[in-house]
Structures are given as structure tokens and as C-alpha cells.
Amino acid sequence: MQVADNTVVQFNYTLKNEDGDTLDTNVDNAPLAYLHGHKGMLEGIENAMTGKDEGESFSITLTPEEGYGERKDDMIQRVPVKHLQGAKKWKAGMMATVHTEQGERQVTLAKVGKFMADVDMNHPLAGLTLIFDLEVVSVRAATEEEIAHGHAHGEGGHQH
């Protein structure tokens, strides 16, 4: 079966930067699953997956615009340290989670004081050209429930 809208795709990936350094991978773990055509994946990955067959491996390069966007200098915000989640002691460069009006968000600490911290709200991969090595592990037709919910269920997908 080929990857098309309303199919559930399970895949493995290795993410590298332009220098070839591995930034993330799920190889040797369970494959990720998503519902194709429902904007649950980076648009560049979904576009590249369209028409691929189960078992197919390929690489793609995404510009910052196709990935997580360009870094924006106006995305530094000051927040109370007590709102940071993920550690007890904080240092610049660490990742934290904060709750925003748009939901939970991962941030990078730019500067930390005793009571306040400057956090970078840019995605950690913003501004980077990203190289994905992708392997389509399986493709199946989505269930009516998955289509209604807008995401894949089961292994690698949403559990409910």
C-alpha cells in the first residue's frame, strides 16, 4: 500500500543537521505513527511521504521555512522561575516546559536569575536546515474513528 491521505503511516527516522551530526532518532525503538493528510506531521515530511511504499527508505532536506521556521529574536520572554517545569535547579541552555495560553510549550533558558528567567520560545530546531533519513515501516488504511479524531491510534500513535 502507498502512503496517501487517510492512511496510517509507521516510520523510522534519523534527524541530522547540515554537518551530518545526528540530532534525534527513533531507530531501535518503536516506529512513529501518524495519520497522513491531517497535518499531524511536518508538512515537508508529509509531502515527501506521499506516494511512498511500505519498506521504502529515502532522505529529505528541509529548509528552516519547511521545518520549524526561522529563529525570531522577539521570542525571548521573562517568566517567573516557579513556572518552569523539568528540573529543580536551572542554568542557561537547559530545556524547560511552561504552560501558556496555547498549551504546554518547550522553551530554552537564555538567562536565569533567582526569581525570574528569560526563556527562548523559539522551537529548539528553528533556523536549522534539517536532514531526515526516513524508512516507511508500514502503511494501512485508517479507521473511521482515526479519521474522525484526526490522528493514528495504536502502536506509535495515540493511546485512548
Could you explain how this protein is built, in words?
Its EC number is 5.2.1.8. Belongs to the FKBP-type PPIase family. This protein is mostly beta strands. It has two domains: 7-67 and 126-149, Chitinase A, domain 3 (Roll); 73-120, Thrombin, subunit H. The chain contains two helices and nine strands. It has helices at 43-49, 144-149; strands at residues 7-16, 22-25, 32-35, 57-62, 76-80, 95-100, 103-112, 116-120, 130-141. The strands form two sheets. Strands 1, 2, 3, 4 and 9 form a five-stranded antiparallel sheet that branches. The protein has a four-stranded antiparallel sheet with strand order 5-8-7-6, with no helix packed on it. The longest helix has 7 residues, at 43-49. The mean pLDDT is 94.
Give short descriptive properties of this protein:
160 residues; Chitinase A, domain 3; 4-stranded antiparallel sheet; Thrombin, subunit H; 9 strands; 2 helices; 2 domains; mainly beta
- Oligomer state of the chains in this structure: single chain
Rg measurement, Å: 18 Å
Report the CATH topology name of the largest domain: Chitinase A, domain 3
First-last Cα distance: 26 Å
